[in-house]
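Follow-up to my post from last week.
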Amino acid sequence: MDSYILQKEKLNNFLDSLKEYEIWAPVQKDATTLFEVIRDFQNISLDLNHQPIISKSAVFPQTEPLFTFDNDAAIKETSPKEEKDTIVFGIRPCDARSFKLLDPVFEGDFPDPYYLTRRNKTALIGIACNEPFPNCFCTSIDGNPFSKEGLDLLFTSLNDSFYIEVITDKGKTIIDKASSHLTQAKAEDTKEKEQLAKASEGKIKRQINLDGIKEKLAAIFEHAIWDKFSSKCIGCGICTYSCPTCYCFDMQDESSARKGRRVRTWDSCMFAEYTLHASGHNPRPTRTERLRNRIYHKFKFNIDNFGVPSCVGCGRCIALCPVNVDLIEILSTIKEAE
Amino acid sequence: MNIQKLKDEAKRAIGRKEVTHLIGYQKGSYGFRISPIFIETKEELDRLTFSPLCSLSLVNYLTIEGKPAQVQSEEEKKSKAKKVAIFVRGCDSRALNQIIAEKGLSRESLYIIGIPCKGVIDLKKIEAQFPNVVDPAEVVEENGKYIITINDQTHEVPKEELIADTCKVCQYPTPLTYNKLLGDKLEGNPANYDDIQKLEEKTPEEKWSFWQNQLDRCIRCYACKNSCPLCYCDGCILDKLTPQWVRRSVDTNENLMFHVTRAFHLAGRCVSCGECERVCPVGIPLMKLNRKMEKDVKELFDFEAGKDPEVKPLLNTFNIEDPDDFVL
Amino acid sequence: MSEFEPNIVAFLCNWCSYAGADLTGTTRTHYPPTVKVIRVMCTGRVNPLFVLQALRQGADGVLISGCHPGECHYLKGNFLARRRFLLMKNLLEYIGINPSRIRMSWVSASEGKKFADVITEVTEDIKKLGPLKSFKREIL
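User reply:
Got it. Predicted complex:
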């Protein structure tokens, strides 16, 4: 499809012409960059040196009310249809790929109207990673820092401008609305972008060959390495909450004497409570079972069920882990385990 | 810190027949990362390290499930059969004292190797200044500067720029309890609560909007809770469903409840290691809550957490002369 | 618009303040009908979570009242409570909740008049502050 050039100083005008959409974008908050709904374009941080976290909440919010109820009236369902058309702007290619991994889960035997409605109404405008982060290993999991998979538009930061590639019809619609700010990309722009893409891929330092990981995992369920890795895990939920492909949730009724609601909230398999039965029995009683399950889910069960690992190689779980539980290290040890 | 000395001491420690294993630091898998290590045999000793990068508290690993040396039965205490050796910094030793005072651990089950600590580096700061470092980096402190070696290139950075905020106001850099102390005792800083006072002086509306702004972005990953050496309860009120004090919904109000509860639970217990703030993935200034409690506890009750394992915990005791003027 | 009537939750200890409140009633002393009394065995039983939860679930203020220092039925419950709620009050003040909303008082079984005075004072103070909006759960 087509490609365009947007001068960087015109970015706000570009976004301005998309006012009918709800726009999510990365916002810098102290040392963190988070995705949130943007009211003021000045707040958007496209700083390529910061890895923004938690883009999935634009489509799969951490807290989602399913219905409300009270003593007098009937149950009132939350209708996902009321959601506005949304753009997630400045999402990284790995994050965009992650939605491709979430889709089959929510499309499964019981299609999830909340996720799917929002997903259909959401367009993803990515920004290519000119500077991969130390733990990026997307190239090891069929991705790359300029991957278009899952995206509707891909921005690439050139010197004073953005190089924009139109990937889908949804992206085309967006471009048509803002076309007055754009110019056609020239051949040299395309060349520059391709050079950047190549350079970026070369900058990825951590790599791992994941061929046969599923078969290997099948053989080492009881291996001592699980104790070794989990002994330092402190059992927080950073890895799962910051993971763009983790989708586990819990559902609870929150009510007072008169009214209440049923909500769906993220849950983390790293919490002891996650598998705790009402009887008090816990099938995953220690951190060993929990950590092992996380790895198995991502690199075995998901391959069994959907044919691909549930990981996009973004490295956030590694970067944010307080105690250096390192997924790449774990995977390479698994590969070598006897 | 002389690493050889550290290894020698560790060797002696695990050589003792009552010591089952040693908890120490090793280099992490990449860049500036540090990882805990559990050593049982002499062969693993070579991986031990200590540097200004060692910001995590090893005390957690004494109380976390699945590890030995937790609360022991009376017989076990008497037999004094098993000990865990552990490296502690000033703040960690206070955490140990506090836990021992609360009867969460017994002193007899520990073999403590104290390290006088000149302060640790805030990972977020160093990784912002030296981004994309994958190869293992070395950091040593010399004359108020950090000498950072990355791929054989050295950089000098003033200590002020990288040191963790809590360490800047650390009052107890030297461990208060230990079996062996590695190195000379260090002088602590005087108590300084200027930042807290500044926030206290704001109007209620300003304070409310400050905290609302900060806590709004909490994702409740509970890293602050789990990385805290003093959060070792066997079952947390956060997991309770009846009554459900804190709901699973993540919104400003529930987040506030969580953080107020957490801060209050640490009143008179927090040892200001600052790990909660450092591990927070969304950068919430949690020490501003903890240090407020620390300040009040010090001013109102003249109490400091973890100074003496024989002193009863603050809220388990009282003084007839406690301030009374707020009571009608 | 009708005048704001505060909603105050009072945790009263069984041995002193609850009996004191009872005496206020039997002597027909008037006090504002703004308090909802919760009887506890001792102020030392009042978990700080109770206070937080009351504020979150619709109370505009909380009163914890027990025996005078030295007169606790359990000898030291009120001393322990005193420490606890001074800290709690300070912490809530620090996050922007007016400390007048968390009050403590010593009311003995014979101080019916004092109980009425305390309730009047607390009510007046909270009336001035208006309803507590900030700490309230949006979904009760």
